[in-house]
Every structure is written in structure tokens, then in C-alpha cells.
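Continuing the batch. This is chain 6 of the set; chains 1 through 5 are on the previous pages. Same settings as before, nothing changed between runs. Recording input and output for traceability.
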Amino acid sequence: MYFDDVDAYEVIQVLKNKYRIFVNPCGGDLAKNLLRVSHIGNTTIEDIDELIDKLKLSINEVKSKELSYDRK
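Output for chain 6:
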């Protein structure tokens, strides 16, 4: 997923620290613009729906800079 208006790394951190959803960062020049989603294992439609819902919430949280997760 490519972002041009929010920092992808911050979105990844919200997903991980607030919702316990793990996606993969990219490195190099695209580190702030790109994240990767994997679907290893028994992934259901409900899992994908939850990811999309939490991804939207995370993007909005980063856009508003109301980061309420622990930044460890």
C-alpha cells in the first residue's frame, strides 16, 4: 500500500501498538510511503475486513496526529 499524505511507518506503529495488527515496513527511499500486507495462515474474510477497518482508523489517527499508542 502506497501513501503520499501520511507516514507509512507511523501507520504501521499504530496498527502494531494499538490494534496488535502486524504489517511489513519497506526500507530505503520508500520507507515513509509503503507498507506490505501478508496473509500467511488461515486468513478469513473477517480478518481482511478487520484489517481494512483498522487501517482506515490508523491512517486517520496519523493524519490528525492524535497518536494514542505507546511509541515503543
